[in-house]
Amino acid sequence: MHGFMWYFHADHHQPKYAGIFERNDVFFVIFAIPSITLFYFGVEGGLNYKFFIGLGIMFYGMCYFLIHDVLIHQRFKWFKNTNNKYLIGLRKAHKVHHKHLGKEHGECFGMLFVPFKYYKI
């Protein structure tokens, strides 16, 4: 997302979005197409490896949505009041990632791994 796909991801690093959707949301489509295609070809003659690759892509997309969009950015106010140290650390680490508005010099935070320095409250 910080490489050749930056065009789609750049608006995500801006402080405010113009509407409900942002260009970054196109990644759901970009990953859904191969996932659905692999599901389709993965059930020919019984389940084969293509189905399970499609399933993995789908699970990654679900994690990205739930962790990144719902929990971290709170685009949906489902888990607004949490006291969980891990989840608070995850949000802090992602704020550091967003400190830079450009694609260079951003700190990699991982999606599920939180460095211990962000657990301090």
Automatic annotation (TrEMBL):
Membrane-traversing stretches: 26-43, 49-67
Hydrolase recorded as keyword: no
Family annotation (InterPro entries): BETA-OHASE-like
Keywords: Carotenoid biosynthesis, Membrane, Oxidoreductase, Transmembrane, Transmembrane helix
Organism superkingdom: Bacteria
Keyword Transmembrane helix listed: yes
Family, per entry: Belongs to the sterol desaturase family.
Protein name: Beta-carotene hydroxylase
